[in-house]
Structure formats: C-alpha cells, structure tokens
Amino acid sequence: MKKRYVFPFAMLITMVMVACGGSKEESSEEMDSMEVSESSEAESRPSPLEVKEGQIAGKAFKVQYGSPAVKGRTVWGDLVPYNVVWRTGANEATFVDLSEDMTVEGQSLKAGKYSLFTIPKESGTWTVIFNSEWDLEHGHFQYDEKQDVLRVEVTPSWEESSQERLAIDIEEPGLVIRWEKLKLPISIQ
C-alpha cells in the first residue's frame, strides 16, 4: 500500500522544487510560451474562431463562431442539409451576448448569452433560433429544442458573388450571416 503513494509524492516534491527554484523571468517566459501555443492552436483550426463586438441600437452586442470555408463543396442542401438544425458555424455552438434586452424580428429577447442556430430551407424563410444553452462544445449535436428562448423566420437572399468563409457581422439591420452566396439579414433593435 505504501509503494502506491511513493511515486506521486516524489512527483509532487519534484514539482514544488522546480516551481520554487525558477526565477520570475522563467515563469514569465513559460506563460508567454503557453499563450503563443494557445493562440497558434486557435489559428490552426480549420474553421478559425471569430469574435465580433459592436453595438446594435446603441446596445453592446457580441457574436462568437467558428468560420468554416466552402473549399469547393456544395454547402446548401449537402454540407448543411435543408430542414435540419444547423449550428450556424463550425465546431462549438455559435453564441451571441446581448448587454440589454433587444427585439429580434419584432419579438423580445432578454439580455444574456444565447446559442444561435438556424434551420436552412431550400425555399422560403429560414428559422433562426436563440437557445439558452449557449456554451455547447459540439454545437447542434447537443442542441435541445426545449431550451429555445426565441424562434423567428427570416428571408434569405442569394448574391452573385460567393464568400469563401462564413461571416457573421454586426451591421444593418442588426446581424448579417454570409456564406457562399447566402445573405441572411436578421433584424435586431
């Protein structure tokens, strides 16, 4: 039984000695190295993490999402199926952070953080969903409709030019999603 504790105890003593023996400069260098590796990890993601902050109707607004690329693929109806909940980005769930109560497509949405999902459709309006579970590691795989706070219908438009990477921008009329030839303007006030 005693042998079981010898190795972990020896490791703990070694870690304490190393930690106490290092200078502040070494610790700072280690921290800088950790920050560089974390930022290079984020930069090396196939779908880079994007954070946009701004104001809508004078109120602070933030959106965070993974930005996938088209890469020659058929996006709508294939990579992103029609009539199925989509995390509106890549990797973890896209989320928005409202500093104050706002209206989305004329409906009230209280201040707070919400995951943002959409249901793309081959024709007609798309459903835009604000869900109370905003911190989902695996996006739509963890989506729970029971946690929906607001669902609105939004009319997409299709542009001539194609945008390679998904972009979600804070601009008129509130929030605009663009990817491939899609433009999905969500009215927020």
TrEMBL record:
Biased composition annotated in UniProt, kind: Acidic residues: 27-41
Region (Disordered): 24-50
Pfam family, one: DUF2911
Signal peptide positions on this chain: 1-19
Keywords (A to Z) from UniProt: Signal
Protein name as catalogued: DUF2911 domain-containing protein
UniProt source species: Algoriphagus formosus
Lineage, highest ranks first: Bacteria, Pseudomonadati, Bacteroidota, Cytophagia, Cytophagales
